[in-house]
């Protein structure tokens, strides 16, 4: 309790310092802030994973990838999540479909772990998660993760990916590692670009073939840097996105003649995003800084089609059946303000940040069968809201002990909130009069949140850390970090990390780390409540998702949730010679008390379960449970060579790969209150953890530049992924696939810039979704596919740089 109060007091002090600092502003000389050339490979100074100033990515004790803005933008996609997965082999960004809100807000994974086991920072400050809880059958089921696509690539200078456990340094969620988004910081210059692309593909599903040309995406982005005073900067960035939906559904065998009745693919999306990043010296010793980002995204995906035979209660409205659409309106805010500088030889950084995400749902082109032919067709379903306030103070200083000793410590306070607001009555309930007998209430496709689902919960936590890094001599580096956290809901946790590095020669070093980590259960996991239609093996069933401490969950054996805990080990090597460098890092991550969303505990399982669920008018209930354990082992390899022949320009060759294997070693099998006990975690849940992401991913890239011309060629190999069913015969496989991308460009540093390219040039798809598993024809390909299932994408980009 004292730690939590101390950290929250520090957060308040940080806010006061940040705002008060502006009152002391004066003209004073300070180092100028200039934009970095993101295409220059020598810009490798990292701030993630180390608090020692000036350390490069090849000098760290933990593996860190530095990804430039150029690497992110020289490809077909404008989505940050997809772009990041293309250039970082340890990251995957599946493109699920027919899984409600997760269609629009997709989670990324690092080293095959859950999306919420990777911490995301913005300029070193904890980013807020999305309000969405992924409750359907996709990769990352049960996770509430950060929506990477709320930050456009145009706003970024670089991204640092720390591929190592770092809870002892940064706190909760950093079990797999850390993604640090570093915003563009410029006093001058600017640019604008327009990207237009479309799919040109042959779609070969299990029941038929067709050619698709169209389904375009249009995006426009711009940025501008402004300078003021001796070192002040304001960088403004903005992006507009208009993406048409894709459809890779199979033919529906239930209709004659057979035709496509569903829509299976990327959702339609319209998105506006703006960011401002600013800073200036306010005294000789202090700098004021901050940023503000806002995005509004409207997405619309499809549910499963309702044929005339299933829509009998509303045949007067839909005589030919109907296809419900799920519309999400996501409004996302990121903001921070801070002050940093020198206090008696100590580097002090105090900041406070606030983030908020609101997702409002609507079901369109649908019906509530309980209303019959008087049913509305569009429904307001309610909203999910998550917000986060974080304040912290970080202090560091370098001492002339050994060769050097960097001492860092700090405190942080955080307040989180989660809220569910109900929808209109027709979205979830019966009409006041004239209800149609025998019909379940709620909008078809996505039922709204009822007043019984409405909640508003908060929690607080405080933390303190110490981080020491000693360069003992020219060869030996030692790091030691420890962090304690106190949460208002589950109490204390403490974690530590030891890092070692030994440089045997200027060209060869060994490095390794050992650490413990944790992830606090998200408020969304603790309190999300909903009754919805969930698809299991292609068929919808009505199910209730409850907090683990709710009365119905408690009756079934639910308990208050505890944090996940991990033990991380890594061992690697760094080799470099001239323009060549190679890093090889092996890792082992053991997670215990892992959280999982239980299977649907159905009333039909036993009379005991039926009697427990009957008062809640649902056929099944599920909730989160601790107790899973898993071990992930893997190897990351990154090789890079820069070649500068006399007359042919510059070639950058990169081969990067990730080998990853997860084994679930413990599965809870019983609930003490039920006898006999139902299955809590079916094989489909376990196989998703073990085989839902590729065990092998290798990317080879050649980047060439000569004067104003350039080209990028890339081939990415993906190992087989399993989309599991309830039985082995219901499993679907993506197969082993290689995806080829190519871009050609004319790109002077200033002036008109042009590019053309193709993603997935050879029109590669995962394996077809088997017809025997596809009674509705909706699912054309496994949506676990790590590279999606849209086919060849051709694009052009025109821009202007000044």
Number of domains: 1
- Strand segment count: 35
Report the helical percentage. under 10%
Characterize the biggest β-sheet.
22 strands, antiparallel, barrel
So what's the overall shape?
globular
Radius of gyration: 26 Å
Q: Quote the beta fraction.
A: over 45%
Question: So, CATH architecture?
Answer: Beta Barrel
Write up this protein.
This protein has 802 residues and is mainly beta. It has a single domain, classed as TonB-dependent receptor, beta-barrel domain (Maltoporin, Chain A, Beta Barrel), CATH 2.40.170.20. The chain contains 9 helices and 35 strands. The strands form 5 sheets. The protein has a 22-stranded antiparallel beta barrel. Strands 1-6-7-4-5 form a 5-stranded mixed β-sheet. Strands 21-22-26-25 form a 4-stranded mixed β-sheet, covered by helices on one side. It is globular.
List the helices and strands and how they pair.
Elements: H1 2-21, E1 64-68, H2 69-73, H3 80-87, E2 91-92, E3 109-110, E4 118-122, E5 125-126, E6 156-162, H4 167-170, E7 177-183, E8 190-205, E9 208-228, E10 232-243, E11 268-281, E12 286-302, E13 325-343, E14 346-364, E15 379-399, E16 404-422, H5 425-428, E17 455-471, E18 476-487, E19 491-505, E20 508-519, H6 523-527, E21 530-536, E22 539-545, H7 551-556, E23 564-577, E24 580-597, E25 601-602, H8 607-613, E26 620-622, E27 624-643, E28 650-666, H9 683-691, E29 696-706, E30 709-718, E31 722-723, E32 732-733, E33 737-746, E34 751-759, E35 793-801
Parallel strand pairs: 4-7, 22-26
Antiparallel strand pairs: 1-6, 2-3, 4-5, 6-7, 8-9, 8-35, 9-10, 10-11, 11-12, 12-13, 13-14, 14-15, 15-16, 16-17, 17-18, 18-19, 19-20, 20-23, 21-22, 23-24, 24-27, 25-26, 27-28, 28-29, 29-30, 30-33, 31-32, 33-34, 34-35
